[in-house]
Amino acid sequence: MSRLRLIAALYTVALLFAATLNYIPGLTDAEARAFGIFALDIYDDSLHLASAAWAGIAAFLSARASRNFLFYFGLLYFSDGLLGLITGSGYLDLGIVNYGIQDLPFTFKILANLPHLFLGGVGIASSYIFRREAP
Fold first, then answer.
1. pLDDT tens, residue by residue, 41-71
2. How many beta carbons lie within 10 A of that of residue 83, not counting itself?
3. Of 72, 69, 85, whose CA–CA distance to 117 is shortest?
């Protein structure tokens, strides 16, 4: 298995975990925020499930499909994280539409958007670093 396919498979697992955060006892606080930070809703769960399916299909198909997934997923998630840093709301979960610009502490914005920035950045970097595996 190529490294690109392995990374896409790991993204499948990570995204499935993200989709289940609200349903694992002890991970949410009294305000239904995972780890006291993320207020996940049905839009977030749907986004994570669809992304996990995309990652899993790409990993199953080929290194090239995995590279395409990592690059485009990375662009989408990284830019969502940047928008979240600026406005307090992302676009992938329709947060910018549903909640608009939010006046939140910058530290909170960093913590809330770090997963998308990290996953997006690693996806883009992986698609570039291992590009020779996918002709």
1. 788 889 999 999 999 999 999 999 999 999 9
2. 18
3. 85
Instruction: Provide the domain limits for residue 120.
Output: 3-133
Angle between helix 42-61 and 63-87 (nearest 10) = 160
Angle between helices 63-87 and 3-20 (to 10 degrees): 40
Number of domains in the chain: 1
CB 54 within 8 A of CB 47: no
Q: Which residue has the tokens 């840093």?
A: 85
pLDDT band at 14 (very low <50, low <70, confident <90, very high): very high
Contacts of 33 (CB under 8 A, 6+ apart): 39
